[in-house]
Amino acid sequence: MYVWLDYRRVQKEDPVRFIEKWLPDYLKMTTRKGKIKLDRAHRSMAPKPGPEQRSRPIILKFHNFADKQLVMNAARKLGLEPCRLAHTGPRISFFNDYSAAVVKKCKAFDEIKYRLRKKSIDYALIYPATLKVMINGTERRFDTPEGAAAFAESLDGTN
């Protein structure tokens, strides 16, 4: 999982210890011993951002998959949008960390998602890379961008 968080808040102490204690408080979640257990927490290798840019994400390696699921579920409950939280400070976002192969498959659906968004059609991208389209109370699923593109083209005359 990776988290967008102002790293200056974390630099004052060990990132693992800071996030283990801070995250349950921030997400208002109950845990055993009042903290979650992390194996690692470090900044991503992205280029250093400028002063007005968003900070680099922090990569978290959870010791237990169950803790990761608790964190993601708590983030979803608190956020208005899935996994995006806005409190008084800077926005903090939570994302699953997918492999390069999964990201590439998801990116293949970008053009189709753009076209569906322009037509105000509801859709969701389901792991690993399945596009679910909801239209007129029915649901269609597409495992390939080609199938989804053909469906989107068939909608051109209807919307």
Estimate nothing, just give the exact number of structural domains.
Answer: 2
CATH topology of the largest domain: Alpha-Beta Plaits
- The SSE order reads EHEEHEEHHEEEH
The level-1 CATH class of the largest domain: Alpha Beta
Q: Based on DSSP secondary structure assignment, what is the total number of beta strands?
A: 8
How widely separated are the two ends?
38 Å
Report low-confidence residues grouped into runs of 5 or more.
80-84
Q: What can you see in these coordinates?
A:
This protein has 159 residues and is of the alpha+beta class. The protein folds into two domains: 2-95, Alpha-Beta Plaits (2-Layer Sandwich), CATH 3.30.70; 100-155, 2-Layer Sandwich (Rec A Protein, domain 2), CATH 3.30.250. Helices cover 35% and strands 23% of the residues. It is built from five helices and eight strands; from the N terminus they run E-H-E-E-H-E-E-H-H-E-E-E-H. Strands 2-3-1-5-4 form a five-stranded antiparallel β-sheet, covered by helices on one side. Strands 6-7-8 form a three-stranded antiparallel β-sheet. A hairpin with a 2-residue loop joins strand 7 (130-135) and strand 8 (138-142). It comes from Dissostichus eleginoides (Patagonian toothfish).
